[in-house]
Amino acid sequence: MAIFVTKCGERWHTQTILKESNHAIQKAVNELVDKRLGRRKSTALLRRIIRIEASRRLVELFKSSIPQNPGEVDVRPIVSFYESLRDSTEGRLDELRLRKHSDSVSPEPNDLIILAECVELNHAQDLSLVSGDGHFVSFKQEIFDKFGVEVLDFYDIRKFV
Amino acid sequence: MAQVLGSDEDYTSGCWILLMALNRLGKIVTKTKLHKLIFLVHEEAQIKGGYEDFRKHFYGPHSFHLTADSDLLAQKNILYKESVIGYTEREYSIYHITEKGKQLFEENYCPNSDPEVMKRAEKVLDKYGECGYKELTEFVYKKYLPKPDEYDERRDRVLDDLKIIESLWEEEYSPESVVYVNLMSAVEYINLIFSKIKDTSLDPVVRGVLLVTSEDLIETIFEINEKYFEGQNPEENLKILEDLFGFICYYAQKTDVLPDLDNFDFSEFLSEEEIERLQHTPTEELQLNS
Q: Do B261 and A48 touch (CB under 8 A)?
């Protein structure tokens, strides 16, 4: 999950953010159902229904956000950035990979695009990237130093809400 | 027509029907509607040639040549395929004709066409052009109902296929898998439908439509299986699955076989205690970080 926030408090999103949010919802719903019910059989329809309801609420949430179209973005600088982090961050990326049960240290393709879109839009207006994703929040300083984009941790913000 | 568009071999002989439909209607919402509409133009306007590969009991009916043409014409900016995420999260396509497409059609096709064929095709487009995709799907499915003596055998085959799909996907679950949830929820839903329509007093047309659409949905799942287990991307087939699932939900609700998904009663699948546990989930447990 991610969203862009301008200095004057406007919330911005892109089509990639919408798609990624929908993807994240299914994962959240599945984890919730797994934990709460402890079974998988005959729960797929339930999972779909909860996801649909959550997606509806998300659509409502995005109605108060301004859609942006940064066009086709180049993700190569973002990929190179994460490759360079492998050497400089003393295994933090590997830790993250293990935590996410992922085969790759690189963020998911949509997350690469989201950061590239944020960098692109940040050229015209100062933006912050609000997210709970470890690939962003664990490297706040590095992302700011490299791209000038401030990363705000969703879970930190929530403490003040 | 093919020469005007570029290479002789790139396009099928039905390409003009697709262009004429878009030129007449301006836009067509959803791939399902596009296929049903072009199919009806062939059937009711008695067009010879065109898309001859329409398969009536597969995605009911669906033409791979039509899909290929729409992709090619979109690449050449003759039509524009817009991807939209719907209110209930389903992603669907809207097909528009571009200015280039209009010009191409009017300058190169219209003067050389058979006015009688054109008139018949336009009449069909005017008749069905305003119908929604679900309405059109229902109309088309009603044309292909099973014979009464075939029903039991075909229903049993559907139920057997659902068991096969369940066992194939049993080990494929992961919290990230949207595909698993989409497929298995469709399987659960079809199982539910057949448990509800055991009653033979139900309108045979309703039973027939639900059987035929279930067969199509299963065909689509087998297509997805093939691609998924061979490591290919089944994205297009998943969109068709969602269209079909959307139609089945709509039709089952409309005919009072099952309630719509918003009002689903889960007491048949979950114990009271399980429902309670789900309802009292603290928001802190929702980890939305992917």
A: yes
